[in-house]
Amino acid sequence: MSTSGLFDNPHSSTSPQKHHVDKKAEEPDYGSTKALFETTNKSEAGTEEDPKANSGLLVVKNDAHDRYWVGEAFQLSPQEIARISNEPAHTSLAEALGTDNEAFYNQLVALVENPPQGEQSMDIGQALSYKLDEIRLRALRAGQVHQINRIESVEDQGYVIALKADNDIWKEKYNKLVEQMEDLDAYRKEEKRDAATWEREEKVSVRSFAGNRSVSLDPNINIEVPKQYRPQLSAAELKVFEGGSDMNVVFKFIKSLDFHIDTLESVFNELQKIEYTISYLRGTPRIWAKEWRNNTKDGNRTWSNLMIAFKDRWLPDNAHLHLLEKLERAELKRGSVDTFNDEYRQTLGLMGIDNLRKDSNVLLSLQQHSMATKGGLNLEQLMDYASKLLMRQPKLMTIEPRQTNNYAKNASSSSNTAKTKKPQVITINNVEDGNDDFINAIAESSNRDRGPRECYACGATDHLISHCDPEKRKAFWGKVNKKRAEMTAGKE
């Protein structure tokens, strides 16, 4: 659409009225908008006392009075202001201006046809005033948003600079750590130590504590569990101990902790074991453990001593009765022999019974009774007889095999003894047994106490020479061969 007559000179060769005739033929009639860009002489529009009335932009033309556009303020409604504030500032400003003058003119025409809310009617001049106020408000809004974005941009630039500085610091630390790892790998390749016998040397500082010479613990003691042990320790869950008088909680904690320490025995030293234990204590138990660690002398600061003190502190005096009742209720089931033995051994350990050596007399008695029983003994019978033997006679006598020449005499003597002497009632695990001739025979045997068999090499009673240490066995046979050689040389 042409805008050539916006500020045309009225004395120019181009006739404004002819121009309006052409636009009337080209454009539809919008009422009072057909003379928007028509210019007139000042004398025709008004007097010199009303300068705004002769602005040069005719917006209303009629026979009674011609009205020109003046720069009047147009108050936008609160709804329009809220709508403009919620729209994107810069893009909405560009849309309000239009892509060109023709698009802008079309927006003015749209306002005349559909006035904003609250306006009954609007001519082209009022639409122009409204549009300019709208554009001005959008421009102010765009300036505010730009200022906010500029401030945020400056803050973001400072944050990026700080991040780059931190990144440089961490990169330098990483490079130093890589260099240290390379030096450590080279050191490990050079040193040749036997992994089975190598023990790490503890380098701890010495300080005075409460008047006694004590070793201060390194605050950087590493108790990180190696990766290859983590699945096993996760399966045996170790919960944090916070104290209390529930014996089951205490026993469960000790049992789980003992498994963890036993698994890490070849990895942790004594200080690491103690620190690992303290890491699973909370509250009063943790304070108590730290005091024990700081007040214990060098040679006594071991994990086993810590557990002895822990049991003495947190187990009640009647704990052994609870454990004994637990052993009484223990039941051996088929397919769970190993589990039963392990539970039994751990319970005895909590009771302070750690001497679990094999009694050769009991083994011999069980073998003889099994051979004398038709079909042998099943597992239940075997465990039952073993329990009775151990409870009846702590130190059993070795039973001599009966001789064939005095079999009748022994049988007669045994028969008379059974008739004249009242059989003793034996109570084991709340089970009375007064008619078991085999048990009574072992308990009342008058045979000489031969004692347990001993190993020829070291004198131990829990194994024979075939299972003794190879070094001790070699030394023993060396002495025997030397003595034989001396005896042979003497005869010659």
From TrEMBL:
Q: Does the keyword Repeat apply?
A: no
Q: What is this protein called?
A: Ty3 transposon capsid-like protein domain-containing protein
Organism (species): Ascobolus immersus RN42
* Matching InterPro entries: Ty3_capsid (IPR045358)
Q: Where is the composition biased (Polar residues)?
A: 1-16
Top-level taxon in the UniProt lineage: Eukaryota
Region (Disordered) location? 1-54
Q: Which UniProt keywords apply?
A: Coiled coil
Coiled-coil region list: 174-201
- List, for all copies, the residue spans of the domain called Ty3 transposon capsid-like protein: 230-374
